[in-house]
Write the structure tokens for this entry.
Amino acid sequence: MRAVASVVFAAAASVAATFAGAPATKLPPPSFSFTASGSLSGLAAAGPRVALAMGCDVRVIDLVRGSKPVRVRPVGDCRSDPFDSGVIDLHLGRATLVATMILAPSPHGESYTLWGGPLPGGPLRALGDAWGWTDSDVPAGWGCAWTIAAGGGVVALAQIPNRLAVDQGLADEPTCPAAASARITLKGAPRTALTVPGSWAILATDGKRLALAQLDDGALPTGQLSLVDLKGKKLPTPRVAAATVRAASNGWLTPRGLVLRTSRGISGPGWTIKGVGAYPEAAVAEGRLLYLKGRTIRVRRLRGGVDRALLRVPSSGARLAAGSFGLVVAIGTESKTSLYRLPWRTIDRTLPAR
């Protein structure tokens, strides 16, 4: 999983070839940002910034300023064992980067750690202890897992029971049993933490509110949804089917309502998108949803209306993220990752007027 990324700026002429076969909207191809060596393992965006991970190599780019990507110094297992470790998930706030790291030296187990630090380049520091599973020891699981959401410049984090050994069929109960209340840590908010009675996973935040999914004693979602402010006060909760809440992995909390990514597709206020696979690739920002269906990126306004094809990509494995700059599309192979940008003014050519 080692990826010692070397940023290589390429000619913009190659972009048109990469996105050949775009839908009939005749949009210009996305502008080329950069190419780096290494396979893409994580992508996130917030405001003007994008963060991407290629194994142990993490880069942060300000797309509005157009500044050179900043490399985040490797820490933890990525510093001591970069061959068997890597960053697999990223979350961005207004001034904070949070990264999830995996160590997997063999097929007999995995260990995870969580790291956080200031933008753009850290340093990153450990947030809590490791968690994981193994089939070579008893007990098979250890530590507390994390649930994380970012939005509105804030990153919200809370520890939850670790089901990894249970899901592998190696244990009957999760480690780190649920407590009577959940303590949620806030990065980038006026408050640093809040406490909510019960066990909850964080689905989404807009920097002012949190959408939470209740967990049972086995750390599985019950289907109950709750909306609270950053003081823990209960707010009017959107009406979402319990089955949708149980199937949700994460989402976006917007002025137009709650949008959830689920094992069945994407669900928003008054609409559902199916036929896009389990936990589809998608991004929400500036009142728009962009998602990947096959090799086509599609776009729609959250308030409703038409759903239109935006452009075709060379691989169904493309990754999407969105911020104030528009949409970024990350396209990777085993040895290279390329990043492209499409501004909102170009995207909106495909949509009707507000």
